[in-house]
UniProtKB/TrEMBL annotation:
<keyword id="KW-0010">Activator</keyword>
<comment type="subunit">
    <text>Component of the Mediator complex.</text>
</comment>
<keyword id="KW-0804">Transcription</keyword>
<dbReference type="InterPro" id="IPR037212">
    <property type="entry name" value="Med7/Med21-like"/>
</dbReference>
<comment type="similarity">
    <text>Belongs to the Mediator complex subunit 21 family.</text>
</comment>
<keyword id="KW-0805">Transcription regulation</keyword>
<dbReference type="Pfam" id="PF11221">
    <property type="entry name" value="Med21"/>
</dbReference>
<comment type="function">
    <text>Component of the Mediator complex, a coactivator involved in the regulated transcription of nearly all RNA polymerase II-dependent genes. Mediator functions as a bridge to convey information from gene-specific regulatory proteins to the basal RNA polymerase II transcription machinery. Mediator is recruited to promoters by direct interactions with regulatory proteins and serves as a scaffold for the assembly of a functional preinitiation complex with RNA polymerase II and the general transcription factors.</text>
</comment>
<protein>
    <recommendedName>
        <fullName>Mediator of RNA polymerase II transcription subunit 21</fullName>
    </recommendedName>
</protein>
<keyword id="KW-0539">Nucleus</keyword>
<dbReference type="GO" id="GO:0006357">
    <property type="term" value="P:regulation of transcription by RNA polymerase II"/>
</dbReference>
<dbReference type="GO" id="GO:0003712">
    <property type="term" value="F:transcription coregulator activity"/>
</dbReference>
<dbReference type="InterPro" id="IPR021384">
    <property type="entry name" value="Mediator_Med21"/>
</dbReference>
<dbReference type="GO" id="GO:0016592">
    <property type="term" value="C:mediator complex"/>
</dbReference>
Length: 169
C-alpha cells in the first residue's frame, strides 16, 4: 500500500508540475493585450518584439500545438491519478465489522493455540517415555556391568590368594 501511495504522490506532483508548466508557457506565448482602462503602456509587447527567441518560438510552434500537448499530458496524468486512487483499498470498515473480525481472529487463534499445546504435550510425552526407556536400559547395563565387575574381581582375588570358592564344588 505504501508503494501505491508513493506512486500516487509522484503522479500528483507531476500533475502540479504539468499545470505549472502549462501556465508558464501560456504566459510566455500569449499575445499581449492592453487594458485601456488600466492605462497600461504595453511593456510586454516591447519585450516580445525585441527578443528573437520568443519570435522564433512563436513562428515554429503555434499556440494550438502547445495547448494540445499540455492538454494530452494533463489528461493522461489525471487518468493515471484516477487509476491509482481506484486501486487503493476501500474506506475503513465500521467498528462493528472490525470487532467481529477481531473476535473471529481471536477465536481461531485460541483454537490453533490449543492444537499447538496438544501437539507439543504429546510430543514431549513421547520423548519423555523414550528417555525413560533409555534410562531404564542404562540402569540395567550398569547393574550388569557391576555384577560382571564383581565376578571378575572375585575370580581374580580368588586366583591370586588361592582361596577356593565353595560354589565351585
Amino acid at each position: 500500500m505504501a508503494d501505491r501511495l508513493t506512486e500516487l504522490q509522484d503522479a500528483i506532483n507531476l500533475q502540479a508540475e504539468n499545470l505549472g508548466n502549462a501556465v508558464g508557457v501560456i504566459q510566455q506565448l500569449a499575445q499581449p493585450s492592453l487594458f485601456r482602462e488600466l492605462n497600461h503602456n504595453g511593456r510586454r509587447e516591447k519585450e516580445w518584439a525585441s527578443n528573437p527567441e520568443f519570435q522564433a518560438l512563436l513562428q515554429n510552434q503555434s499556440q494550438e500545438d502547445n495547448a494540445h500537448k499540455f492538454a494530452v499530458t494533463i489528461a493522461t496524468t489525471a487518468k493515471q491519478i484516477e487509476l491509482l486512487i481506484n486501486s487503493l483499498p476501500a474506506e475503513e470498515a465500521s467498528l462493528e465489522l472490525q470487532d467481529e473480525v477481531t473476535r473471529h481472529l481471536l477465536s481461531e487463534y485460541r483454537k490453533e493455540s490449543a492444537k499447538l499445546v496438544h501437539l507439543i504435550t504429546k510430543s514431549f510425552q513421547t520423548r519423555l517415555s523414550k528417555v525413560r526407556q533409555l534410562l531404564s536400559k542404562i540402569a540395567e547395563v550398569q547393574l550388569l556391568t557391576r555384577t560382571l565387575e564383581n565376578e571378575v574381581y572375585n575370580d581374580f582375588y580368588n586366583a591370586t590368594t588361592g582361596d577356593v570358592d565353595s560354589n565351585d564344588y
